[in-house]
Amino acid sequence: MTGDAVKAKNGSMVAYDGRMAFKKMSGGGEGMRGMVTRRLTGEQMTVMEVKGHGTCWFADRASEINLVSLRGEKLYVESSNLLCTDAGLRTGTSFTGLRGGATGGGLFTTTVEGTGQAAIMSDGPAVVLRVSSPYPLQVDPGAYIAHQGDLRQHFQSGVNFRTFIGEGSGEAFQIRFEGEGLVYVQPSERNTVGGDV
Question: Which of 1, 131, 137, 166 is the most exposed place for a label (fewest CB within 10 A)?
């Protein structure tokens, strides 16, 4: 950093050189309105601002880190998978409907918008999958990390008669993405409501 700032997950700094200042931000960096919104939605994220001159390293639970460059677009990301963003990027919350309920993370997800870079985390190297109009994509909710682009998402059940007689795929629920954009998944699954069906 050369006098600029980043917003990072609170406590994620592992080392730095140079002169840095650290400040905890309320509401995930969105002020009082953001704090109220996050409390109401259950999408919790504690953020710190890091400003200064030098190099700062961030990490969390030995997760893989993936840089996503935004050029005015919006990135939808699970709050537990967001490590840090350029300070100029705006963060917020967005209603995800049943998809969020299936992941056990609530009905809302974090949004990152503007121009700059965001660092997202994954359990293992993230896989970036392209969705286009003729090729929709189904994703296990436990492997979903983030998505961007002009995508519509639908929650769909894979539960049928074969599931109950033990011949199903083992994937009770999926998220179906349609449109044009990118979906980030990890080669690992969180525990989800669907995983217990």
Answer: 166
Q: How far apart are CA 189 and CA 172, in angstroms?
A: 13
What domain range is 34 assigned to?
Answer: 2-196
Both tokens of 14, joined, read 């592992």
Q: State the CATH number of the domain containing residue 82.
A: 3.60.160.10
**Token representation of residue 109:** 């997800």
How many structural domains is the chain composed of? 1
Q: Report pLDDT for 189.
A: 84
The model's pLDDT over 150-178, given as tens digits with 9 standing for 90+, comes to: 999 888 776 545 544 555 555 567 889 99
d(C-alpha 39, C-alpha 121), whole Å: 23
The more confidently predicted of residues 15 and 195 is: 15
> Bridge-partner residues for 111, per DSSP?
76, 92
**Structural contact between residues 185 and 131, judged by C-beta atoms closer than 8 angstroms:** no
